[in-house]
Structures are given as structure tokens and as C-alpha cells.
Hints:
The protein is mainly beta and about 80 residues long. It contains 1 helix and 3 strands; from the N terminus they run βββα. The radius of gyration is 15 Å and the shape is elongated.
Amino acid sequence: MLITVLDTETTGLDYKQHEIIQFAAVRLLLKEDGGINITDKIDVKISPKNIMLASPYALKVNGYTEESWVGSLPIEK
């Protein structure tokens, strides 16, 4: 059986002002013998457009720093 696990990181919990800044997904193959294989994964950092509106707590939780987001992609990509 294949299972896909999704995760997002955001700049806060208010959908009107906060934004997604990271998306990750892992596809797992659950084998009949109980084993698990990772068959595919993706982890994409997204450039925030309104970082000044971000919750400081959310940024601490998701580990956002300007340096760690260098090279991140615009949301349009």
C-alpha cells in the first residue's frame, strides 16, 4: 500500500495574513512484512512575500531565518 504524508510550514495561523513557506511530502510503501520503504520525497522552501506580518512564534517553530531561506522558490513556481 502507498501512503503520502504531507507537511507545511507557515508564517502563522491566520489564513488572511500568513503564508506557506515550506512544503514537504514523503511517499511510503507499506510492505506486507511490516516494512516501510520511502519511495519518493520532496522538500521545498517558499519565499515569503510578507514576512513582516509573520508570527515570531511561528518562525521560531519552523526555524525560519533569512539565511536558511536563501535560494527558496517563489510561490508561483
